[in-house]
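Kindly review this protein for my students:
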Amino acid sequence: MLSATWQYSVRALVHLAMARGKGPVLASHIADTEGIPLPFLSKILHQLKVAGIVAATRGQKGGYILQRDASKLTLLDVAHLTDHVDFGEQCLLGYKFCEENCNCVLHGEWEGIKDQIQRFLRNKTIEQLAEDVARERLDVDGMLRLRQPPLRPPYEVTAADM
C-alpha cells in the first residue's frame, strides 16, 4: 500500500532522529545501517531536503541532519510527501469519483479501514519510532539478511501434469 520510498524515508528519518544532536550523518552510513541502496537513498534525501525536512552540509564533517521537529513529523506527513497519498479522497479501486452517494463495490468496507490507517499514520511520529524501547532490541542487521523463501504452491507441477 505504501511504497518502498515511504519505507526507506521513514527508516532514514528515524535514523536521523536518533542521531539528533550528534552532528551530521553521512548518507553512506544511513544506507549501510538501514540496508537502503545508496543511489535510492540519495534521491530520497534530496526530496526530503527540498521539502525542508532535512538539511545537508558539505565538507569533511558534512552529512544530513533532521531539520524538522521529529515530534511533529508524522508517518502520514511522510506518506503525503513520498506517495502523494490522500486517504480522504482515494478510491481503493482507483475510480476518480467514489463517495457515499456514488461509490465502488468496496467503498463501504474500505471507509472504515481507511480511517483506521489514516488515524494510525497521523498518530505515529518519527520521534516515537526513534524513542521506542522495542527499537533497542531490534536486530536490524538480522532483519536485513534474513529473507523469507519464495512462496511455493502446495503441489508440484510435473511434466506428466502438462
